[in-house]
Design brief:
heterodimer; A: 125 residues; alpha+beta; OB fold (Dihydrolipoamide Acetyltransferase, E2P); 7-stranded antiparallel beta sheet; 3-stranded antiparallel beta sheet; globular; B: 377 residues; Gyrase A, domain 2; 6-stranded mixed beta sheet; 9 helices; 19 strands; 21% helix; 32% strand
């Protein structure tokens, strides 16, 4: 499994072979507060980098989750239906959103690594 | 109050909020705590099971004085102000000549004067409205230097009694003065959560000290505006600027209960003719509760349709109800589609999702015993 890569919209993606797992960052869940609902895409849906792929809702508001790269949804995290707070408790682990079969794994090279992302969010404060 | 620059204002408790780990957000021109470290769900639950302290110092506190103050205020609101016994308070509305709602407010008859609490976002306009329209020698005084705290929850009376002996004997919707730690405070048994509780008006210089004393009481924790909003939504209480505004009337909003027999008969407030007509013939639309069948929250602005897809209204407040443990919403629906149980659809992100009209409140009110009824409220 490769290391996490991050988008400026606070999604993370981790490549495992030709399939990548996508979620939202710890910073994102912290900013959202208590997650109460997650709407996941249907299996087989084609998503494009920067396009809406899911919705995450806190008590206060709904936020869009964007696909970090182009791909096809091959799995979604059904556990989030009964326990959306997994996104708060384990944002980069059990709180993952979806798995994508990637059109072009090289697209990950254009995303931030963890050090660059931490530097990026430090600049947002 | 702390020194202020051109940015958002701060209440006297700003530093305390930050020390308590609050996430501060802009709200009605103030930097206010939306939540503390516990988070909105925990703060909401704590309010329903114990007691939470809210800083509501951003709200407007106004005093009206003058021999004809009650009659003068009655020219601007449909509530029975003249019938308020000393120490009693009432929820009422500023209306315009179309019966649109300019603000909602609490009015307390303190004895020598009337004490008003108005919404933060409306307070400048409300004071201007009062100054421009109150006649009969009534004066308007803003109490901008005072703090306002709300202690809410089933544990509120037991906790506050330790610091302010006597408060637990107060009836719901009454007010009384107390001395706390040398400070003269005004306590009302009221709130905005559906729970028993108190609001405490405190001289600015004493607000931090008394807030810290209350937070030190057993079972009390701080709660922010996020929990305040989810609590009031579950309690079916209106948020000004969302569920009520100048385009909604008291009858449409289900607030005709705030208009007593004498005011219904005699009118004498802006929009009385519209209210009288709507009371007689029914409004075209009504404020309703809505329970989505699924788990997706429907936010403010969501279209409400009938099952066939015809638009019948709009959601004005919606989100997740932590005590309901599911999505809850309020909005306006055409009157013949407004009965509890009526199937509707909510168009969330372009997809109609089944829901049904529901009775308000979503969570039963648990207010303290009301005072003995006096007059014809």
């Amino acid at each position: 499994m490769s290391a996490l890569r991050f988008t400026k919209d606070h999604e993370w993606i981790r490549l495992d072979g030709s399939v990548a797992t996508v979620g939202i960052s710890d910073y994102a869940q912290e900013q959202l507060g208590d997650v109460v609902f997650v709407e996941l895409p249907e299996i087989g849906r084609k998503v494009t980098a920067g396009g809406e792929a899911a919705v995450v809702e806190s008590v206060k508001a709904a936020s869009e989750v964007y696909a970090p790269v182009d791909g096809e949804v091959v799995a979604v995290n059904d556990k989030l239906g009964d326990d959306p707070a997994l996104v708060n408790r384990a944002p980069t682990g059990e709180g993952w959103f979806m798995k994508l079969a990637l059109a072009d794994p090289k697209q990950l090279d254009g995303l931030m690594d963890e050090a660059a992302y931490l530097n990026y969010i430090a600049g947002l404060a | 109050m702390p020194a202020q620059n051109a940015g958002p204002k701060r209440t006297a408790l700003y530093d305390l909020h930050v020390a308590l780990g609050a996430k501060m957000v802009p709200f009605a021109g103030y930097e206010m705590p939306v939540q503390y470290r516990a988070g909105i769900l925990a703060e909401h639950g704590h309010t329903r099971t114990a007691a939470s302290l809210f800083d509501v110092s951003h709200m407007g506190q106004v005093v009206l004085r003058g021999p004809e103050r009650a009659a003068a205020l009655e020219a601007l609101v449909p509530g029975d102000i003249a019938g308020l016994a000393p120490g009693a308070m009432r929820y009422t509305l500023f209306t315009n000549r179309d019966a649109g709602i300019l603000d909602d407010l609490m009015v307390t008859n303190v004895g020598d004067y009337l004490f008003l609490v108005v919404n933060a976002a409306c307070k400048e306009a409300d004071v201007a409205h009062l100054v421009a329209n109150l006649d009969r020698g009534t004066t308007v005084e803003r109490l901008d230097d005072r703090g306002l705290l709300a202690l809410q929850g089933p544990g509120a009376a037991g906790a506050l009694e330790r610091l302010v002996p006597g408060v637990s004997r107060m009836a719901f919707m009454t007010a009384a003065p107390f001395t706390v730690d040398g400070a003269r405070v005004a306590v009302t048994r009221s709130g905005y959560t559906g729970e028993d509780g108190f609001e405490i008006s405190i001289p600015g210089a004493d607000t931090v000290r008394i807030a810290e004393r209350i937070l030190a009481l057993p079972g009390v924790a701080p709660a922010g505006l996020g929990a305040r909003d989810s609590l009031r939504l579950e309690a079916g209480l209106c948020l000004y600027g969302h569920d009520i505004d100048p385009t909604t009337t008291p009858v449409e909003a289900g607030l005709a209960w705030t208009i007593g027999k004498r005011r219904r008969a005699d009118g004498g407030y802006p929009g009385a003719d519209v209210v009288t007509r709507e009371l007689a013939h029914g409004p075209k639309r009504k404020r309703v509760g809505i329970l989505p069948d699924g788990k997706a929250p429907a936010r403010e602005g969501t279209a409400i349709t009938d099952p066939a897809g015809r638009a019948i209204g709009t959601v004005t407040s919606g989100g997740f109800g932590p005590t309901v443990n599911g999505p809850v919403a309020m909005g306006y629906a055409e009157t013949d589609r407004a009965a509890p149980g009526t199937p509707v659809a909510l168009v969330v992100r372009g997809t109609p999702r089944p829901a049904r009209i529901a009775a308000l409140p979503f969570v039963p009110h648990r207010y303290a015993r009301p005072a003995q009824q006096r007059g014809n409220a």
